[in-house]
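Chapter review: from sequence to fold.
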Amino acid sequence: MLRRTKLKIVKWVKFLIPSGILALIVWANIERLNNNLYPNYEKAVDYGRVREIKTEVSPIIAAIFYADKNIEKKNISTYFDHSENYRKQNVKIVVVPRNLTADSLAVVEKLYAEIGKYNKLEKIAIVYDDNADIKKHQKILQKVLKIGKAKKIKISETNFSEEDKIDDLLQKNNRLVIFLADLVNGVNNQNSDYLVEEAVYFAQKYSYNMRVFDIIDTQIAQAVEKDYASLFKLTTDSEIPLMLKQKNNLEAYVTRYGDELLRYFKMNLLQADKPVWPQKNQQTYRLFDRGMVYVRIFDEKNNEIFSRANIRENQSVLVSLVNIAIKTAKKTTVPVKSWKIYLLTDFAEIDENQIGFIEKDEGICVWSNKNYALLAPDEVADNPQKNIAILRNKANIGYNLADVKFFKFKSVEINDGN
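The C-alpha cell string follows.
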C-alpha cells in the first residue's frame, strides 16, 4: 500500500472516530430530548416549595373534652382515628374554629351531629370574643342539634368575669360549652388564642380527657399521656430538623405521584426492551424531579433476589425507577413476587461509632471510592457491628480500606397502597 494511501486512511480514521462519538452523543441527546427525559431543576425532597401550585389550606381542628367517669387521672391521650373521635358520651367542652369557611362548616356540622347522637344535651353555651361570627354559629347549632338558643358568654383577654358562668355549667349534667377559638397556634405560644388556653384551663381543672375530631394540613405531634399544653403546642416548620422536613416533603410527593411512579416501574419491570416513558406535561412534570432511589426485589418466598440504589443527585426519580426496573427484568431469572421502593432524603455523614444511635426511621449508607451500599430503615438490625458487616459486604469494601464513609438518611416507601 502506498504511503500516501496509508496517510489518507489514518487521517479519515482520526476524523471518523471523533465524528462517530460526537454523532452518538448527539443522537442520544436527541432521543432524550424527544422523550424529554431531562431531570427537573426541582428535587423531590423539596416538593411543595418550587413550581408547585399550592392552595393555602387553613387548619381545621376541633377538640373535644369529655368526662370519663371510669378513669380518675389528670393526663390524656390523643387519638387520630376519625371514626371514633367524637363517639363519646359526657362531652363537656368543644373547641371549634371561630371563622366558618365552607370546609370548616362541614367539619363543625358533622361534629355537632355526632355529639347529638351520643349525648343528651339540655343546654348549650357559646364562649366567644369580638372576632367570632356568633350568629352563624348559633344558626348551625339550632339547625343540627335542634336545641333552644345557645347561651352567649363573651370574654376577652382583659375581662374574665364570666368564668363563673362557665364553671357553673360544667358542674351540671347534660351541659355543653363551646369555645369559638383558633387552634392553629396551639397553647403556650406568643400567638396562641387565649380562648384555647381558657378551654384547656377548665379541662385540666375537671380532669377531662381530650380527642381531636378532625385535622387538615396540621403538624400536631402524636403525643400520649402528656399535659394539654404540650399536646396543643404545634411544631412550627422552623423547628423541624432538615432531614425530617425532607421526609415530610417526600411523603407529600409520594401521596401525589406515588401511583404514577409505581405504574411506570411495573410496566418496565414486565419487559426488558425499550423503556416506556410518559410524555412530560403538566400532569407528569414532577415525576422527573431529581431524587435518590433504592429498590429491593423479592421472589415468591419473599427472599431478596436483587437490590439497587441510584444515589446520583442529578438523576430524576422516574428515570432511576425505569432503569432499575429494566435492569431487574434483564438480571432476574426467577419470577418477581414483590418489591420495596424507597425515596431517600439527603445524606448526613456520621461516624462509624454513631451507627448504633441512629433513629428508628433512619437508614445507613457506606461509601468508599465508587462503591456504596444501603440499608433501608426496615433493614437496619439492632446490632451496629452486624450492620457495618452487611454494608461492607454488599459494597465489596474490605476492612483494610481507610477511605470509608458512613451516612444516615430517612426514607419514604412507595407501595401498592399509595
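Two observations follow directly from the output. The chain is about 35% helix and 20% strand. Residues 259 and 363 are 24 Å apart (CA to CA).
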